[in-house]
Amino acid sequence: MHTGAGPDSLAMQAADAFRAFRDGDPSGMSTLVDVVTPLLWSVARQQGAGRLSAEDVVQNTWLKLVEHAPTIADPQSVLKWLIVTTKRGAWAVGSHAHREAPGTYDDVREVETGERAASPEAAVLAAEDGSVVWDHVAELPERCRTLLRTIAFAERPDYAQIAEALGMPVGSIGPTRGRCLAKLRAALVADPRWEMSS
Amino acid sequence: MTPTPEHEHLLSVAPLDEVDDLVLAELRDLYAHHDPMPGDLLDRIKFSMSVASLEAEVAEIVSSASLATVRGTEYDRVEAVTFAHDGLSVMVSTEPSGSGRADVLGWSSEGLIEVELRERGRTRTTTTDDEGRFTFLGVERGLVSFVLRRTDADAPPIITPAIEL
After folding, report:
1. Buried b vs exposed e over B7-34: b needs ≥16 C-beta within 10 Å?
2. Which of residues 57-116 of B touch A (CB under 8 A)?
3. What is the ipTM of this complex?
4. What percent of chain B lies above the pLDDT cut of 90?
5. What pTM did the predictor assign?
6. To bridge A174 with a disulfide, which of A112, A159, B25, B42 should be the other Cys (CB 3.0-4.6 Å)?
7. Chain B contact probe: residue of A177, A180, A193 with most B CBs at under 10 A
């Protein structure tokens, strides 16, 4: 199956739950929150939001959904709507932080580096208990890490839609492997430790 | 062996396979372990969504008491919590009723209040008697909250923070 969502896709689960909610079943919204929030947390964190900011961003996304639920015409698009809203929210938090922090110098890049939260990957590498996969993920470009972390919390039929919602070019992933996963896969294949562990 | 650009390109145009699923599953575990979502985030999200969608006002917890007397591995638990908002106060106490369930006994400072109990995935509603009493029997243990509505239709509903039964 090359297009559309299979029965297990996250987009489909989200659409079903959202439709149930719209039809008057309040547990639909609860299910939707359970199913999608881990992915939204990943999106917020990978956009550079600190843990506390990421909580606010994700919570605000859901509050916006309460407000906008009636305007979402196609339940199938609710997953994408949530991802895009979270991504924008995380960016708004980031740019707001830049404005609030009075930079000592005019070098914007320096301020940005300081204000962006340390990447989750860096934290793990510092803890020195990563795996072979982790070692190679840390070497990937940031956009690839964001894509791979986010799709890791979804199902195969969702990958293309998620890539699009994240603003990655068409073909970044799904139905083919795409460059990010290919890079990781090539690095793993070349690493003798990977053969042993897989 | 160093990965070549051609090798990478060939991999990138090939369809996803089980090894990719494996790698992504490991990635998911790694992120979930090293940068986990806060454990209570889901509950807090649901609570704030309820408040927003009901256009409700939030009651405060003004007092809570938890007494646990331990007898070996068994323990009896009696808990009471009082919520208040806008001149209305509601006290709720729980008693174990076996098999992971509890009876909820409540008293509200006003009579004829509609009380909605929100459990995970379901709700039930009752109305207080003239003296403000209400009960919910056999409530599954876990997080619950209450939505209180005065019969005066203009008054906004009042929602209590979630409590653990």
Report:
1. bbeebbeeebeeebeebbebbbebbeeb
2. none
3. 0.79
4. 45
5. 0.76
6. A159
7. A177
